[in-house]
Design brief:
Blueprint lengths: L2 E14 L3 E3 L2 E3 L3 E3 L7 H14 L4 H4 L12 H14 L2 E11 L9 H12 L6 E6 L5 H4 L3 E12 L1
Parallel strand pairs: 5-6
Antiparallel strand pairs: 1-4, 1-7, 2-3, 5-7
Helix pairs in contact: 1-3, 3-4
Bound molecules: magnesium ion (MG).
Length: 159
Amino acid sequence: MRQRFGIGFDSHTFVEKRPLILGGVTVDYPKGLKGHSDGDAVAHAIIDALLGAAAMGDVGRLFPDTDKRWKGADSMLLLAEVRRRVVAASYSIVNVDVTVIAERPKLAPYIDQMRENIGKVLGLPASAVSVKAKTNEKMDAVGRGKGIQVFAVASIGGA
Ligand code: MG
């Protein structure tokens, strides 16, 4: 089995009056992430990592924000569609690793639920799904709590 890797990144700003959804978990916080879909930056970074590993494009190409179908979309459903496409191209998903950078809220209480949700969608055990949260040590816009950034790496095998 040939092993391939992909990297994904996403960045969203906080806005008022939106739920904060990360890895399919609604996080208790007064602000949410701006975006055409539900703004789930964790799901988007994983999507780009998987598509990158398979060299199959990126989230914006598959689900353009000019398309009304994706307005307010549940990004975990978009992730499920990406899994379907990657598997249809004869790849198997090996593992994903995610780093969320957010000054606040504290995400530790939500990490295990995110791993479970992501694993369910990707057909992976939680042992193959890593989610880590860090602050930006108060530096730059993310450090001032303006938004969230997410990095993801995915490994796939086959083809
Ligand atoms: Mg995004």
